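Quick check before the chapter quiz. The format below is the same one you will see on the exam, so make sure you can read both the input and the output lines.
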Amino acid sequence: MDEAHRIEIVRHRASPALDGVIAGMVGMSERAPAPVRRRQPAGTVVPLVLSFGEPLAVDALGDGVGAGREYRSFAAGLSTGRADTRFSRGQDCVQVYLTPLGVRRVLGVPGREVARSVVHAGDVVGELGDALSDRLGEAISWTERFGIVEDLLLRRAAEEAAPPSWLSWMWDRIQRSGGRTRIADLVAATGWSHGHVVRTFREEVGLTPKEIAGVVRFERAVADLGVVPQAELAARHGYADQSHLIREVRRYAGETPRELAAARRPTPATALRGS
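Here is the expected output.
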């Protein structure tokens, strides 16, 4: 990285009252002497980027709408494809990583409303628009900015009902299994019909249980890229073989496992775990 390219990431431990609503929150400030282009693979969090700096351009979306535009504050819904972004000089923002079941609690709309798309935050929730950006820009510290955002999140989460208990359980089981659990078994355990479960899950989360399970499995596999050989990686995460792994990585990331491992880009996962 060029010496003049600087990035600062500050992590915030959110209130326990937001457990299950957000996966984490970070402050990010970045400066670069030339345009910075990044490719963000599919993931299991919904980034809510609350900017108080330059806009971010979304140049391409693997399976969604909203590309070819610039955004200041925005939400990027769940998808099964990658997003290509670009900024010219710098970025300053608080990034909130909403869980799939936290989207409605914060944005007031089901996951389906923002899935496979990038939307201006202020268009979904008026108080996430320019007035909030101005407040964050006027704040004198990350602590103050985190306080502003957390107060807003707590208030909005308290106004929305939690999802059905069976849906929370189902999402937990998909996560715990690394995306490898049999969806039919989970559906049967809920006691509801297959059609009802899939329709409700897709409405709330934005993807079907099978689709989100594929993203979970991809995320787990990517975390091991470069750590173990690809053939072993494929077997460990339930892919038929190495070729299957490569196809799935291309599907979710838009590039090969080798290219993805070599890039070492900042991602929600690395921002949250601090590596």
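If your answer matched, good. The mean pLDDT is 92.
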